[in-house]
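Hey all, quick one. A colleague (J.T.) asked me to put the zinc ion job into the tracker so the inputs and the structure tokens live in one place instead of scattered across chat threads. No bug as far as I know, just bookkeeping. Sequence used:
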Amino acid sequence: MKFSAKIVLLLYLSMVECKSQPSADQSYTAFTGATIIDGRGGEPIRDAVLVIRNGRIVSIGTKENVGVPAKASVVDASGKFIMPGIINAHGHVGDVQGIEGGHYSTQNIIDNLATYARYGITTVVSLGGDQSEAVPLRAVNDSSATQRARLFIAGEVITGETPAEAVAVIRKNAKMGVDWMKIRVDDNLGTSPKMTETVYRAVIKRSHELGYKIATHMYYLADAKKLLKAGSDFLAHSVRDLPVDEEFIQLIKAKNVGYCPTLTRELSTFVYGDTAAFFSDPYFLQEYDQATIEPLLDPASQKKVRGSRAAQMYEQQLPTAMANLKTLQDQGVPIVFGTDSGIPKRFMGYFEQLEMEMMAEAGLTPMQIIKSATKNAAEFMNLKDLGTLSKGHWADFLILDADPLADIRNVRKISGVYIGGEKVERKN
Ligand SMILES: [Zn+2]
């Protein structure tokens, strides 16, 4: 980028980042009459009042308990449903444009986060691939700037053949000021070397010494157990090779670690072996056009996907992942919503909706799914003042035209997305 272009961009960014500050005008907005699902998993609040000011929730409750402040601007939300904004605890940001990777830039991070936001994803924890451009963009996390999702980052995915090599990456990430650390312990279906236990133990230890939590990409049940024993703070994917067993369940509960299903990650490996049904879904087409998906309609490329052993394996093991999700939910393991979207062919925003629908297919109730994408995601990813609709939290929420507790597909019926109390402009 040329120097002058950089200045213009910086100016633009500072305008975007500061947008909320001048609006510190002490004015209240009250949303009245809606049914509110606050993210905690309890009974919804009917005929509710939600009062916000300066991007944060001032009060929330029934109209009997919460008054509308004088001079508040009132938004009549009668007949509507309000739920917290969706938190994707495992996404990636900045690399993808259309279905292509390799576009990492400040502008593309902003564009990606805006796409997420228009689909109701108000926070993204990017678990790897984050570069220095992402660092200042996290300023939204402490403001009510709008039009894009809040961002947390894990920096570079930690790799290394020796503890020293891996620890060098930790140092680099720490210097950058990441929010999480991330490792991969996987052999990609036996096709590549897996990080050794000696190395990941050293990585987890060092990360903890520096005060970081560590998320792990894993695949196999045996690795997941070893990682839990070694102190991993987050399992960033489903266990996919085998049904989870009693030892795993006891371990993950005892360690109080979040479990992130990423079912759409599996879907993305094989679904393009044919013309994906969702290509004609109007909700998909709101953000992704025909030109974008054109290469995926090519019969030769579809044949290649169908012939891929990896695609076949992932497809075969998806039912195991789904059954494991249901087992773990039933056992009271904290399910933390995430998709691994923001990788080429995993469509940001839309895949979060699909993920929720696949979780429902796996047997979770809409309330369990919503809780995983709100309270659990904030709690297990350590995101301050986010997740539930509570006094003092950021006013990140969705207004829906239909009840998401009746059918998780109703999350598609977005009437408004609010981040820090300000409405996100949407395309329809
Ligand atoms: Zn990932």
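Adding what we noticed when we looked at it: The longest strand covers residues 28-36. Residues 90, 92, 127-128, 340 surround zinc ion (CB under 6 Å).
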